[in-house]
Design brief:
There is one protein chain. It is built from no helices and 26 strands. With about 350 residues, it is mostly beta strands. It has a single domain, classed as Neuraminidase. The strands form seven sheets. A four-stranded antiparallel sheet has the order 3-2-26-25, with no helix packed on it. Strands 4-5-6-7 form a four-stranded antiparallel sheet, with no helix packed on it.
């Protein structure tokens, strides 16, 4: 989980495992014209490198992170600001964390392959009408598919991508526009790229299992107050899991909900962060660079960059957290299917 101080561009890193904050460290400070883009593996076996983009020049900079420190940095190049980031995935089929950009004027989509902190290739995927907006990246095993949604009809289309080419497409169906995509993860525990939607009026959460380019099942998780907003999906309680993290827009509090077999199986508070600390994202991490390592001696299952409490002081403990009540926050109502 990445948070960045809005005022001065300061970053801190918090290690999370077993639904608990384990430790905290300060990473450093970057100019506020550099905005957070994502965490990912851009330097071979790394899993928690940080990618930033300059809001003036369009330049991309990757920062390698190991043992809670920035160990290297590399400039990837500039791209015009009319090209905006859509998502990341293994689009080259080489096991890399590649980037898709989209032209805001034409709808054109371009994939950039990234390895060893360099752009190693690029390919044009095609053009989609601007009414088709990004829903997310659905990962199935080693394949990363792109899901777009029609802003007028609510229709969902999945595009299969292999070797930097669109190799297939399927229509998943339409969902009412009051249901908006939140994220994708392995919620069914079957190594699928399942989709989480949220109702903008009721706060309801609905899971859709996706396999073989079809929706194979749906499950209602319950309702959550609209003051709790989507923060991310990450393996917070164990390796390979897809847990949902929400943040309260009034208090800055974070709550994790453990999901397995399309069911909520647990919940815990991660504490509160000052609202001047903005949310970025999540990455799985281990000292060996392997995603989802089960070695308890390297229990940092998730790298969490944050400045909890807004103090900017990190001393290797979780003392900066406030309101870290481990009990479940009021969240779910009785299920009511959409």
């Amino acid at each position: 989980m990445i948070l960045r101080h809005a005022g001065d561009g300061k970053y801190e890193i918090y290690n999370i495992g077993n639904n608990t904050i384990l430790a905290a460290y300060q990473l450093g400070q970057v100019g506020t014209d550099w905005g957070f883009t994502t965490l990912g593996g851009f330097n071979d076996g790394d899993t928690s490198d940080m990618l930033l983009r300059n809001s003036t020049t369009g330049g991309f900079e990757v920062y390698d992170i190991s043992n809670n420190q920035i160990t290297g940095a590399a400039f990837l190049g500039n791209v015009g600001l009319n090209w905006q980031v859509m998502g990341f995935g293994n689009f080259s089929s080489l096991g890399e964390n590649d980037m898709i950009l989209r032209n805001t004027g034409t709808g054109g989509m371009q994939v950039y392959n990234i390895s060893n902190n360099q752009i190693t290739g690029s390919a044009f995927l095609g053009t989609a009408g601007l009414n088709w907006q990004m829903a997310g990246v659905s990962n199935h095993g080693t394949q990363s598919d792109l899901v777009l949604r029609d802003s007028g009809t609510g229709g969902l289309e999945i595009y299969n991508i292999n070797n930097n080419q669109i190799t297939g497409a399927s229509f998943l169906g339409a969902v009412g526009l009051d249901w908006q995509p939140s994220g994708f993860g392995n919620f069914s525990s079957r190594n699928e790229g399942d989709m989480l939607l949220r109702n903008v009026n009721t706060g309801g959460l609905m899971l859709y299992d996706i396999a073989n380019n079809q929706i194979t099942g749906s499950f209602f998780l319950g309702n959550v107050g609209l003051d709790w907003q989507y923060a991310g999906i990450a393996p917070v309680h164990g390796p390979g899991t897809s847990d949902l993290v929400l943040r309260n827009v009034n208090t800055g509090a974070f709550q994790v909900y453990n999901i397995a077999g399309n069911t909520l199986v647990g919940s815990a508070s991660l504490g509160a962060a000052g609202l001047d600390w903005q949310l970025g994202g999540f990455a799985a991490y281990s000292s060996t660079g392997a995603m989802g390592s089960s070695d308890n001696s390297t229990a940092q299952l998730v790298q969490a960059m944050a400045g909890f409490g807004g103090s900017g002081a990190a001393d290797g403990s979780n003392a900066g957290f406030v309101n870290a009540d481990p009990s479940q926050q009021p969240f779910l109502t009785m299920p009511q299917h959409a």
